[in-house]
Write a structure and sequence with these properties.
Helix 5 packs across helix 6 and helix 7 packs antiparallel against helix 9. The protein has 12 helices and 10 strands. The chain is an alpha/beta fold. The radius of gyration is 19 Å and the shape is globular. The chain has a single domain, classed as Alpha/Beta hydrolase fold, catalytic domain (Rossmann fold). Strands 1-2-4-3-6-7-9-10 form an 8-stranded mixed sheet, with helices on both faces. Strand 9, helix 11 and strand 10 form a beta-alpha-beta unit.
Length: about 375
C-alpha cells in the first residue's frame, strides 16, 4: 500500500496534534506477569521493582497495545479500514514502547493491531539493578520466554484469529530470532530490522566472550561497561549523522521527560548474555527449526551490530528449508526507522508488502 509519511519539517507538531491523540483513543496499557512461563522454562522468576513505585507491578513487564478496530472508528485519513491481524514489536537495547509510536501509527493505518512489550530492564518493566540507566539481565533465555509468552497470550488476543506477525529491531531482533527457532509456529511472518544476530564489540566475538566472562566472575556482572555512561540531557547527533534530526529530537524529548526511558548503558552481564544469545541463534540446527518466513533489513552503516552474522543466519535458515530474504540499505544507520523519509518510506512499504502479500516468495525481496 502507498504510505503518506509524516512531514519531517512538521514532525513534532504532527506527532503532538494528530498521532498521539489518535493512539490514545485505541491504546490499552497493562502489565504482563511472565512468572508462569519462566517457571515452565526452568527459570527462577525475578521480582524486580518498577520505576513507577507501584508494588503491584513488581516482577511484571509493561506493555502497550493498540486496537485496529478502535483506531478505524476514529476515521483517520488514509486508514485502510480492513483488519489484517496483529503485529508484536520487540524493541532494541535501551529502547521503550513509546519510541515506536510513529511505526505503530503506520501499522494501524494499514489495518494491524499492535502490541509492544517493554523488555525486562527497559521502559516501565521490572528492573533488577538500582541504576535506572543501566540494563542488566541474568539469562538471555528470559527475554525469549517472556516475548513468546506475551505473543501467545496478549498478541494472539489482538490478532483475533487473523495472522500474528513479528517486528523486531536490534536486540529485539536477536531475541526474535531465538523465538522463531524455539517457537516455529508462533508467528506467521517476521521482520528483523538490523537484528542483533551478533553485537559489534570492537573485538573478535570469541575473545569478547572470554573477556566478559572473566570480568563477570570477578564481580563485574552488575557494573557498567567501561567507557559507557548514564543518560545526560544533552542532545547530540553524534553517531547518528544522516538520520532524521526531527525523529532523533523526538526520541530524546521522550527520554528527558520520562526517567524510565533513560536506559542508556549496559551491565557486563548483559553483554555476556548478548554474546551467548548470538552463539545460540547461529547454531545451524536451531536455524533449521525456523518455519516463519523472514524479511531481514540490513543497515550498511551499522556500528552496533554485525552484518556478516546476519548473512550467515539467513543462509542457514534457507538451508533449513524456510523462506528468508535480506534487503540492504547501504547508506542507512542502525535504526532505519529513524532515517529521513527518503529511506524510511521504501523501508516501510516493503515491510507492509511483505506482511500483506499471501505469496511470500518473490524476487523483489
Amino acid at each position: 500500500m502507498q504510505v503518506t509519511m509524516i512531514d519531517e519539517a512538521e514532525y513534532a507538531e504532527t506527532m503532538t496534534r494528530v498521532v498521539l491523540p489518535a493512539l490514545e483513543q485505541c491504546r490499552d496499557e497493562g502489565w504482563f506477569d511472565p512468572g508462569t512461563a519462566e517457571k515452565a522454562a526452568g527459570l527462577e522468576p525475578l521480582a524486580g521493582g518498577a520505576l513507577d513505585g507501584d508494588d503491584s507491578h513488581a516482577g511484571k513487564l509493561h506493555y502497550l497495545c493498540y486496537d485496529a478496530a478502535k483506531f478505524d472508528a476514529i476515521r483517520e485519513q488514509g486508514a485502510t479500514a480492513t483488519f489484517r491481524g496483529a503485529i508484536v514489536i520487540s524493541h532494541g537495547f535501551t529502547e521503550f514502547a513509546e519510541k515506536y509510536d510513529e511505526l505503530v501509527w503506520y501499522f494501524l493505518l494499514a489495518g494491524y493491531s499492535v502490541c509492544v512489550l517493554d523488555h525486562r530492564g527497559h521502559g516501565k518493566s521490572a528492573r533488577n539493578v538500582d541504576n535506572h540507566c543501566m540494563v542488566w539481565i541474568d539469562d538471555w533465555h528470559r527475554y525469549v520466554v517472556d516475548l513468546a509468552a506475551f505473543a501467545q497470550t496478549i498478541g494472539q488476543q489482538y490478532a483475533a484469529g487473523m495472522p500474528l506477525n513479528l517486528f523486531c529491531h536490534s536486540m529485539g531482533g536477536g531475541i526474535g530470532a531465538a523465538v522463531l527457532e524455539r517457537y516455529p509456529t508462533l508467528f506467521d511472518k517476521a521482520v528483523l530490522s538490523a537484528p542483533m544476530i551478533a553485537p559489534a564489540t570492537g573485538m573478535p566475538l570469541g575473545v569478547a566472550r572470554v573477556l566478559v566472562g572473566v570480568l563477570c566472575k570477578l564481580g563485574f556482572s552488575r557494573k557498567r561497561v567501561f567507557g559507557q555512561s548514564d543518560f545526560t540531557p544533552e542532545f547530540s547527533m553524534k553517531g547518528n549523522e544522516g538520520a532524521s534530526q526531527a525523529r532523533e529530537r523526538w526520541y530524546f524529548k521522550l527520554r528527558c521527560e520520562h526517567p524510565e526511558y533513560q536506559t542508556y548503558c549496559a551491565a557486563f552481564e548483559w553483554v555476556r548474555q548478548a554474546l551467548k544469545l548470538s552463539h545460540a541463534v547461529l547454531n545451524p540446527a536451531a536455524c533449521a527449526e525456523v518455519e516463519t518466513p523472514i524479511l531481514l533489513f540490513q543497515s550498511g552503516r551499522d556500528i552496533w551490530v554485525l552484518n556478516k552474522p546476519q548473512n550467515r543466519f539467513i543462509q542457514m535458515v534457507k538451508d533449513g528449508g524456510s523462506e528468508a530474504h535480506i534487503v540492504r540499505f547501504p547508506e542507512s544507520r542502525h535504526e532505519i526507522f529513524s532515517m529521513p523519509n527518503s529511506t524510511f518510506k521504501p523501508y516501510l512499504e516493503q515491510i507492509l508488502k511483505f506482511y500483506d502479500d499471501p505469496m511470500i516468495a518473490s524476487a523483489s525481496y
